[in-house]
Each structure stands twice: as C-alpha cells, then as structure tokens.
Design goal:
A hairpin with a 2-residue loop joins strand 6 and strand 7. This protein starts with 9 loop residues before the first strand and ends with a strand. It has about 270 residues and is of the alpha/beta class. Helix 1 packs across helix 2 and helix 6 crosses helix 8. Helices cover about 35% and strands about 25% of the residues. The chain has a single domain, classed as LigB-like (Protocatechuate 4,5-dioxygenase, Chain B, 3-Layer(aba) Sandwich), CATH 3.40.830.
Amino acid sequence: MIALEPLSSTRRPAVAGSFYPRGARELADTVEGLLSKATKIEESGLVGIVVPHAGYMFSGPVAASAFAALASSERAFERVLLIGPAHYVPVFGIAASSARSFTTPLGEIVIDTDQVAALLDAGLIDIDDRAHAPEHALEVELPFLQQALGRFTLIPLLVGEASPDEVAAIIALVLDKRTLLVVSTDLSHYLDYVSAQTRDLASAKIIERLDYLRLGPKNACGFAALNGALCAARQRDWQIHRLDLRNSGDISGNRDRVVGYGAWTFSASTPRAI
C-alpha cells in the first residue's frame, strides 16, 4: 500500500468569506437557515446526492434541498465520498489530496487516509495538492455536510479527464451502507436566462435517464464526476429524483448571464414528499 506523505497535514479553506461566511456562527446560522427552508422528503433508500457549488447567495437554496434529505434517511452516514470538478488546475484522471484533514470555519473533517491509500495502491487515483488547494467545488459542500451529519470522515476527489467507468469503479469500491456519495456540479454557464432554462431542462432529462454518455462541459462543469455517478446508478439500479432546477437569475434577478443549478437524490426506492 502506498503511504501518504502530506505537503500539509490540513487543507485550509480557500473560499471562506467569499462563497460562504467566514465566521463560524454566521456560517452555521446561514446553513441552518437554508436547510430549514428546504422542502423535506421522506427518503428510505438514500445513497447519494447531486448538488451545486456556487456561492451560497446564489446556489445555497438549491443545495439545501438535497442536504435536507439527509435528515429523513434511515442510514447513519459516517463517511462521505465527495467528487467534483477542478476549476483552476487541470486534473488528468482523478485526484485526491495528501492532507490528513480538511477544515472549514465549522471545524476539522478527518480524511479517510486508509481508503485514499487503497485507491492509490489500486492505480485508480493520484495525489494533486496543487489542484485541491484553491478549489471551491468540494469545499462549499463541507459546511452543509458538517451541519447535516455532524462527525464523518471524508474522501474528497477531483475528477478531471476520466471516463464514467473509471469514476464508477471508485464508487463501487468505496460505497457501502455507511458512506454517502456527494456529486458537486453546476449546470450551464453564462447563457441568458431563457437559453439556460432550455439547456438545463434538457440536461436534467439526460441525468434522469441515467444516460452517462451524453453530458459534456456545456451541460455541467462537473460532467465527468456526474457521468461516473450516473454510470454507477445504472449498474446498481438506483433511482434518481429531482429536487430543484433553477439558475442564478431566479435568485439574483440578473438574467443576462446566469449559471444553472440542480439538485437530485440517488436512492434504492422512490422518495415521497412529507
């Protein structure tokens, strides 16, 4: 097994104070407020969620709709497999961090280094701290997870040029009854409001057909991670349920250049509104 030699033992927040509040109390209140306003569903077979990763002022309500589903799950999740795109440093394949923990203003999250080392040993991932250091796509999901789950261990992976089968293979190895899959992705970028609605609805239909060969960068910035999750869902006969679909124009009022957001659950059974 390959030993991890971290460049730094802790990966510190890169976007606290910009994508979400820097202060612990304000952040906790913000996340709790978003979760409290989300529509609750009864989720008997939850295995994963798809969530956006923009600033909380834009995508927070959409993300909260997925994280709120954790409250009704019968599973007590103790670990999270968090996958999403790299926006700042190109990733060739799938990249973990060498850090032993990730921190947010709400505290420290311990990395499951044994599992990371096992994935390294299997040749399924590499280590790329340069890509992880500035990246917001995974970081913005962490305060929601801390608020919803309390204590858990984390496997954070940035998915770059990787096939759906490669991502699905990692999901198959890691996922168990105590592990939650979280896929971080936004949808269309910088279209006008009506064009974004049209494209995002078409993308949603592809996602809901579990068509893991159709999504590309014009559909979602995290398309590679999402395609891998859709591939895993098809292999495992998971069901997918849409919780929310809108864009930044619905929230900010600026409809000239918008970003699309969607939230879904993966489950072994059909969720119900409560």
